[in-house]
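Researcher: Quick sanity check before group meeting.
Model: Go ahead. Protein one:
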Amino acid sequence: MTETVGTTSGRGKKAPRASRPAGLTIERIHTTAGVHPYDEVTWERRDVVMTNWRDGTINFEQRGVEFPSSWSVNATNIVTSKYFRGAVGAVERESSLRQLIDRVVGVYHRSGLENGYFATDDDAEVFAHELTWMLLHQVFSFNSPVWFNVGTTSPQQVSACFILAVDDTMESILNWYREEGLIFKGGSGAGLNLSRIRSSKELLSSGGTASGPVSFMRGADASAGTIKSGGATRRAAKMVVLDVDHPDIEEFVETKAKEEAKVRVLRDAGFDMDLGGADITSVQYQNANNSVRVTDEFMRAVEAGTDFGLRARMTGEVIESVDAKKLFRGIAEAAWACADPGIQYDGTINDWHTTPESGRISASNPCSEYMHLDNSSCNLASLNLLTFLGDDGQFDAARFQKSVELIITAMDISICFADFPTDPIGETTRAFRQLGIGYANLGALLMATGHAYDSEGGRSLAAAITSLMTGASYKRSAELAGVVGPYEGYARNASAHQRVMRKHAAANDDVRTFPASSGIHKLATIAWKDCLATGERNGWRNAQASVLAPTGTIGLMMDCDTTGIEPDLALVKFKKLVGGGSMQIVNQTVPRALTKLGYQPEQAEAIVEYVGEHGHVVNAPGLHPEHYEVFDCAMGERVIAAMGHVRMMAAVQPFLSGAISKTVNMPETATVEDVERVYLEGWKLGLKALAIYRDNCKVGQPLSAGKSAKSSGGGEKETVTVVEQRPIRRRLPKKRPSETVSFTVGGAEGYLTAGSYPDDGLGEIFVKLGKQGSTLSGVMDAFSMSISVGLQYGIPLEFYVSKFSNLRFEPAGMTDDPDVRIATSVLDYLFRRLALDHLPYEKRAQLGIFSADERTAQVADQYGETVDVEGLRQGVETEHTGPVTPAGASKAPVEVGSSTELLELRMGKAADAPLCMTCGTKMRPAGSCYLCEGCGSTSGCS
C-alpha cells in the first residue's frame, strides 16, 4: 500500500472509496444486537442547582435534566453545567445525556463512514452502539473539547493539548503572544521552548544587547493573566521550557523563587497577596509552569562534579562554563522554595521519539504529558480502570484490550473532521495524527485489589495494564494504516518508529509479574507481537498513541475516585446527595480492599466504621499492621513517600508514547537534598518529566519561622531573598472594654474574661479555673498570658481557634452554654466561645463553629422546618450504586465544600490547593494540575 492511500489531507477530503481496502470489522463487546444501549438503563429526571459555596449565590441552574439513575449527583452537575450546549433556558438547550452522547457519537459515526474506516454499514452501527454504551456506563470519556465542540456550530476543535514554537525574531515572539491568547480564549493550554531566543549575554545584529527569553516571558505572563481575568472559566494553563545549556538558564531558574520572596515581603507589609487578591497582579511569572530541559551530558556532569558549557544560540559555541553540580543545586533550591522549575529529561524524551527525522521534541503541553513536535496538538481520551474490575476481584484484560482498540479508532476518526486554532498546528497534527489515550482510577484499582500504591505488586499491575493499553493502541493503529493509510510523515520516519516500537516491546518483556498481573502481561505480550508484525507490513496510522493526563473534569464525569496515575487523596471523601445536601463517606474502595484481603464482613464493617470516625486505618480494630500500606494516600495520617510516587511513574513510563502528568508531593520538612535526590533518580529511572511540590512552600499557607535559606536549603548559594520580619506588639489602652462569661465543662466551673481593643479585635484573655494557688490555676494564668501576648503581636484569633478547638482531655463533656453543648476539653470550649464572640461568620464557617441559632437555620434551610429522616435515607440509597453508606460515615459539616476541605478538617491544617475561580470551592490535586469537585473547573488539561 502506498502512503497516500486512504489518507486525508484536510477536513472532509478523502481518497475515492474504491481505492481503499476493506474497512474494519467491529465486534460487539458490551452491546446486544437489536437492543439499543439506552434501553438497558433506568433514566430519571433531576434538578441541577449549583451554588457558590462561599456566598450561597446560584451560579448555574437547570431543572429536569435526564440521566441514568446510576450516575452520581456530582457527575450530573458537571456534565449539565459544562457540556450541555445551548443557552440556559432556551428550547434548544440540551437537557438529556442522550442528546449529548448522540451529538458527539453521531459525528464520529458519520465521519468514520465517509472516510472508509468500516467494512460495512453494520460495522459502523456496531461502532456507534459500542461507543454509546461505554460513554453511558462511564467506561471512558473523550477530553473536554470534544464535548464542548463536536456536533455544534462552533469549530470542531477536539484537542486539549498544544505545543507552539517561537524563533529568535520579534515577529515570531509577537506571534507567540497571539497564538497563546487564542488557545487560552478557547479554554485550552499550550507549552513551548524559548531556547531559540538568544540570551541577554549575546549581541543583536545592530550591535545592541539582546533582551533574553526571561524578559519576553513577562509579556506572555501578563497576557495570560489578562485573558484569565477576562472571564475564562479557569486559569490560563501554559508551560515554558528552557534548555539547560542556555546562557540565561540561571536567571530562568530563579524567576519564580524571587517572585515568591517578593510575595512574602508584600504580604507581611499588609498587601492582599491571596490568590485573586487586589495586589497579587504585581507578581510576575505566575501563569506558567516552568521546566528546565536537561540533557544526559548535563546529568553526567552533575554526577561527576565537572563543569558544563552554556552555548550561544546563534553560533552554538560555549560562551560560559558553570559548575554543573552548583547549577543543579540551584534548580533544586528554587523548586524547594516555590515548586518551580520542574525538569524534563531531553535524552530520554528524544530516545523514545518516533519521528526524529521531522524534528526534535523540545517542549510539552502545560501538564507535561504530551511531548511531540512543535506546532502540534494531542487529542486525549481516558478509560475508567475500575469499570474493568469484576466482582471476583479480577481485572478483565480481554475486554479492556477490545475497548482500547475501539476508542483509538474513534480518536483517529476525530482528526478527519477536527479544526485547529492555527494553520501550522492543523498541518502538523493531520500529518502525524498524535493521539493520547490514557486512564484514570489507577489508585482506586490498586486499593480495591489489595495492592499498596508503593509496592512491587502494585507497580507490576500498573505496568502490565499500561503496556496492554499502548500495545493494543499501536496494534489497532497498524491495522488502521492497512485500511486508511499510515500517517503522512511515516515513510520518512519508518526506521525510527519501528525502533521505538521494539523498545516498548522489549520493556514489556522486562516486567516482573505477580499473580494479579500475569494474565494482563500475557495479553500485552501478544498485543506487542501483533503490533510489530502488522506495523512492519502496514506502518502505523499514528505517530503517538498514549499519555497519562490529569483527567480532571472528565474524571468527575466518569465518577472516578482517583485521577490519572494518582493514588487516593484520602480514605474519607465528600459526596453530594440527590435532592441537595452532602455527606462524608468512606471510599467504597476501602470495603472492596478489605474483602480482597480476606477480612470477614463484620471485621470489615468495624474497620470501615473506624475509618469513618478517624479518617485513617492506624489502630483500626482487627486490621493487621502489614495491611496499613494498602490504604496509604496522597494526604492524611499515612502518606506515600516521594520516591513511591517516582517509582510508580518509572514503572509505567516505558509503555507510554508521551509522558505523565503528575506532581511528586513532598512534606514540608523535605530538604533541598531530597529534591536533588528525586530529580536525579527520575533521570536514572527513565522518566521523561518530573515536578515536585513541597507542602507549604507557597504563600497563603502557614510559614515556618526561624529558617534561613542556608539552613533549610543546605547550600551556600542564597537563591531566595530572606527578609527578617520582626513583629510589633500592639498594646491595649489602660481602659478597654471586656466581657466575662461563666461556664461549666464536665462539672468543672470557671470564668473567661476577654478584653478588646476599643476599635474592635480581641487583645487579651483571663481564665479562672480551679482554686487560687493551685497548679491548675497557675497553669491557666500562664496560658492566658501567652495567648494575650500573642494576640497583641498580631497572631490571628482564628489560628488559635484552629489549634485548640477539638483538643481532648479531662475535664470534658456537657456544658451549660447553649451554643457549645459538648466540649472535648476546657480549651475546646474556651476557644469555641471566643470564636463565637469575636470572629465573623465567614471565618467561623471555615472553622465549623456556629451558634445554636445558626445551626437551626442551616438545618431548616437545607431540609425544611421538619427533617424527613426516611427521605434522607432513601436519598442516600438512591445516590449509591454500590453498598449503602458504611457505618460511622457521618454527614459532613455544612461548611465543607470539597474532599480537600473535608481532609483539612481531618488533618487540622490547610492543604496547598487554590480556590476555584468559578465557584470558590477549594480544589484538589489532579496530576500536575488542580480540579474543582464543585463545578468541574480545572487548572490544566481535562
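Researcher: Fine. The other one?
Model: Protein two, sequence then structure:
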Amino acid sequence: MSELYQIAPDALAIEQPPEIKFGEYALPLAFELARKLRKAPRKIAEEIVAALGPVEGFAGFEVAGAGYINARLDRGAAAKAIAVDGEIALEGAGLHSLVEHTSINPNKAAHVGHLRNAILGDTFVRLLRAAGQKVDVQNYIDNTGVQVADIVVGLTHLEKLSLGDVQALMARLALEGRRIDYYCWDLYARVSQWYEADEAEKAARKKVRLDTLHAIEHGGNDTAAIAELISTAVLRRHLETMLRLDMEYDLLPRESEILHLHFWDLAFEQLKDKGVLYYETEGKNKGCWVMQRAGRTAEPLREEEALESEAANNGQAPDEDAKVIVRSNGTVTYVGKDIAYHLWKFGLLGRDFGYRRFFTYPDHQCWISAESGEPDHPNFGGAQAIYNVIDSRQADPQANVIQALRGLGYTEQAEHYTHFSYEMVALTPRCALDLGYEVSEEDQARPYIEVSGRKGFGVKADDLIDKLIEATRAEVDQRHPELSEEERGVIAKEIAVGALRYFMLKYTRNSVIAFDFKDALSFEGETGPYIQYAVVRTRSIFRKAETTAESALARMTDVDATPYLTGEENDGIWQVWLRAAKTSLLLDQCIATAEPAYLAKHAFQLAQEFSNFYRKHHILTEADPARKQFLLATAAVAQRELIRSLGWLGISAPEVM
C-alpha cells in the first residue's frame, strides 16, 4: 500500500465477515483511504486486490460490498499449522503482577456473592500465568473492621461471654462438628437486629459497637483477643471453602498489621510532603486532612465565597467534596489505610510485614502477615502491576487510591493499577423461596432480590457447593454404576465445580447475576457441564479408535486437508478449526480487557461447533482412511483447545460423565 499510494496507515483494522463463506477476514481499509485519496472505496479496494498478487497462506482476496476486501485463508495449510501450533506465546513473561481477590470479612460464612469475586479473581490469575506472568495471589483480611467488631459485640453483650468462654465455645463447636463460620452467620444477623431493635437504646448500643471497634484496633486487651480468635478461625474456614473450588492464595495481608506496623505513618509523610493531602481549616471538613476527590476539577468561586475564605484558605473556599483521609479526631479512613497498603504493594512504602506460615496446600504454603514473623519467608510486594477484584460499589475509594499514587508522582504505577470491578450476585425470587425465605408479593415480581448478610439472607457458599455435588452425584451414580464410589465422587465434584465456575464466569463483570439453583444445575445450554461433555465425547472417540489426540494431530502432516475443508458443505468442519485457532487470541483479549467472560463464551461456542461436527460426521465408521484421519484430527484440535480453555477457567475435564 505504501508503494501503491505512498500512504502508511497508523494501524490496519481487521474484521470478521458475518458468515464464513465470505472468508476469514474483512479489511475496511478502502473506507479509511477514501477521504485521503478522494476515490470511491470500492475502486480503491479493487486497486489494492489487483496489486496484491499471491500471498503465502492465503487462497485469495476479493472485493465485497461497497469496498470491503475479504481475505480467504488457504484452509489446508492453515489446518496443518493449527495442528502443530499448540503452544501459547508468553508475551507477559517476566512481568510481576499481584492479584487481590476474595477478601471476605472474617466474621461469618462465605456466601454466593463472595464466590463471584473469588472465581473471577482466581480465573484472572490463571490467565495471567498462562501468559507467562509471575503472579502473587493475595487475600486481604480486614480483621479489625466493624464487621468483626459486631461479632465480638454479639459474643460479649448478647451471649455474655468472656475470653475464656469464647475459647470454650469454639472447642465445643469443634467437638460437636459444628462450624464457627455458620455460628457467626446467625450471630451477625442477631447483632444487626439488636442495634436497631430498641429505639431508646439505639445510641448506647452503637456506642458499644464503636468502643469495641476501638479496643480491637488498639490491641493488647481481651476484646482484641476475642476478635483475633474468631477472625482467624473463620478465615481458616474461608480458605477451606475456596479450596473446594481449587482456589489457593500466597499471602493473607491483614489490616491489624497495617495498623500496628504503622504503615500509615510512612504514607502520611509522603502524602504531606508531595502536597497530596492538605489540612482543612474551614467548612464541614475543618480539622481533617483531605485530598481532592478523583475526577474533580476545580470550579471558579463566587466572589463572596472567595472573600469569606481568603484569610484561612489562601484565597480558596473549602472544597466541600474533598475526600477525608484523616478525620478531625485523628483516626484514618479506609482510603488512607488503602493508600498505604498499595504503596507497599508497589514496593514504595519503605517498610514490610513480618510473615508466618498459615495454611498448607498440597504444593505450596500460604503465608499470613505478622508484626514479627519467620526469617525464611518468600518476598511479597514490589509488584509491577496490580489487579484488585472488588465490587463496583468501591469504585470511588479505588479511584482515590489511584489519584493519590498520581499525586505522589507514581504515574507508571497508577497506570498499572486496575480496579477489577464487578456487579453483585442476587437471588431470584424462586431461589429465595426454595431456600425457605419469606418473599413478599412485591419481591416475587422482581427479577432479583439482593443478598444481605446483616439480615442473614443469602446462600452460604458451602451449602451451594454441597447441593451442586449432591445433584451431580445422583446423575453420575445413575450413568456409571460400574465405577467405584470414590471415582463417582471425584467426577461429581468436577462437574459441580465446573457448573458453578462457568455460571459465575459466563456473565460479563458489569452484569448483575440473579442466582438460581435450577439454572446453575442445568447441564444443557450455555453451561460448564455442556463444555465438559464435549471433551468427554472426544475422549470416547479416541478410546474406540485406539489412538490418542496427540497422535491424530501429529499425523496431520501426512494428510492433504484441502479437499475436506473446501466448499460450503465443509464450512462446519472448518469452523471448528478456525475457532480452535483463536484460543490464544482470547487469552490476550481477556487480559487486555480484564474480562474472563470472553473466554467462557469462546469455550462454549467451540463446544457447540464440535457437537455439530460430531453429529454430522461419523468419524469411527468413515471408510476413507485419509478422511478418517482428518476427522480424528478435527476432534483432536477441538479437544486440545477445549481442555486448555477449561483449564484457564479453573474447570477440569472429566474422563466420563
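Researcher: One line on it for the slide.
Model: The mean pLDDT is 91.
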